[in-house]
TrEMBL record:
CDD domains: AAA (cd00009). It comes from the Bacteria. Residues 122-263 form the IstB-like ATP-binding domain. Coiled coil: none annotated. GO terms for molecular function: ATP binding. It comes from Aneurinibacillus thermoaerophilus. GO terms for biological process: DNA replication. This is Primosomal protein DnaI. InterPro entries: IstB_ATP-bd, P-loop_NTPase.
Length: 303
């Protein structure tokens, strides 16, 4: 390698008095006299520096990175002085994706929904959906943990992209450092009964109560019973109101949702059912901004 062949002498010469274009150039400007440790910044390290910087110039991708520490490359650390490894742009992007994934927890949500972004939705160019998109973006940009308590109720016909809009909200909030839990309500209600057998009910319910932002996807499409309505959904929303915002997506208006909540399976007393439904609506309606989602039917018409 150039540095070893050209300098090849003592460690100090390699570090500070090499070729004017070599890796020691910036160090000479700050330290006119040799300082440092050979094991930090000797000929072998300089050779590694040259080799790995060359690798980065011809990057084969993160999965095939030939550097000693995949995804990292050496830079001159002016504090020691020494060579130190820092993540490349590809590695930083991977770390960012992992960080975002850790902030977005989900139950029964399909991957394409979790991967949705506002950028994708904007590029789809649906003018009728634009007001809902702007409302969702505004919520995410203005959100403040502990201060924002009003969520959104996104409703509209099937196939208009309500779930993808909610997924994009989850991603944007995660980018801002906000923990989000997104739950597909029909599957959650179906499986919460099975959780009784494994004593997981309280764990699942606690996660929904405590999430900084909770997204309930497709509420109104589930088959509720009195127990899941009064002992599961009701307490979750009771805990969250005036403290943590909830975002809903639904095919139903708020009035239709109340009717759905009142007419659950095995309801013996319709009057009590209506009263309990009203109680739940009091935990939803005052704490959301209602947004209608219109536009193309993306399921039927495609992109």
């Amino acid at each position: 390698y150039l540095y070893r062949k050209k300098w090849g002498g003592t460690y100090f010469k390699c570090e500070l008095y090499g070729d004017s274009n070599g890796p020691g150039t910036d160090f000479r400007k700050k330290w006119p006299r040799p300082i440092g440790r050979p094991d930090y910044f000797g000929p072998i390290k300089l050779e590694q520096y040259a080799r790995e910087r060359d690798n980065c110039q011809n990057c084969p991708g993160l999965e095939r990175c030939p550097n000693q520490i995949p995804g990292y490359f050496p830079v001159l650390d002016e504090k020691l002085p020494a060579l130190t490894n820092v993540p490349c742009s590809e590695k930083q992007a991977e770390m960012k994706r992992s960080e975002l994934s850790a902030r977005i927890k989900s139950q029964y949500i399909k991957p394409h929904i979790l991967n949705s972004t506002f950028k994708q939705l904007i590029e789809e160019g649906d003018p009728e959906r634009k007001p809902a998109l702007l409302a969702a973006m505004k919520f995410c940009e203005n959100f403040e943990a502990g201060k924002t308590y009003r969520g959104l109720y996104l409703y509209g016909p099937m196939g208009r992209g309500k779930s993808c809009l909610a997924g994009a909200m989850a991603n944007r909030l995660a980018q801002r450092g906000v923990d989000v839990l997104m739950v597909y309500v029909p599957d959650f209600i179906r499986e919460i009964k099975d959780a009784i057998k494994t004593n997981e009910v309280e764990e699942k319910v606690a996660a929904m109560r405590e999430a900084t932002v909770l997204i309930l996807d497709d509420i109104g499409a589930e088959q509720l019973g009195t127990w899941t309505r009064d002992e599961i959904l009701g307490p979750i929303l009771q805990e969250r109101m005036e403290a943590r915002p909830t975002v809903y997506t639904s095919n139903l208006t708020l009035q239709q949702l109340e009717s759905h909540l009142a007419n659950v399976a095995k309801e013996k007393d319709k009057a009590i059912g209506a009263l309990n439904a009203e109680r739940i609506m009091e935990r939803i309606e005052p704490f959301v901004d209602v947004v209608q989602v219109l536009g193309r039917n993306w399921r039927r018409e495609g992109k």
